[in-house]
Design brief:
Elements: H1 2-22, H2 25-37, H3 39-55, H4 64-80
Helix pairs in contact: 1-3, 2-3, 2-4
Length: about 90
């Protein structure tokens, strides 16, 4: 069990180092602050950035404005998914 915890922390530190290379310091700081409040949203952004880097789609470091636009895109995508329950009323005759 200790080894899996150690592997997890190594993966996390490797992930952090990779993201630090991909992002400008201001963008990385903003993402860190977002992670304190919305860890799931920050994790989604990290996954997107890592995937884009693996595919070679990042030509330059991610700036703070790029990060904000990516966050807005994610927010808009999340808004589109809504579940509406139409409950039928019972007649009380």
């Amino acid at each position: 069990m200790h080894s899996s915890t150690q592997e997890s922390s190594e993966d996390q530190s490797s992930r952090y180092a990779t993201l630090s290379r991909l992002m400008e310091p201001a963008a990385r700081d903003r993402l860190t602050r977002i992670a304190l409040v919305h860890s799931d949203r920050a994790r989604d952004v990290e996954n997107i950035l890592l995937r884009k880097a693996q595919e070679g789609l990042l030509q330059q470091k991610v700036s703070e404005s790029n990060l904000i636009s990516l966050l807005n895109q994610l927010k808009d995508e999340k808004k589109e998914t809504k579940i509406i329950f139409n409950r039928q009323a019972f007649d009380e005759d």
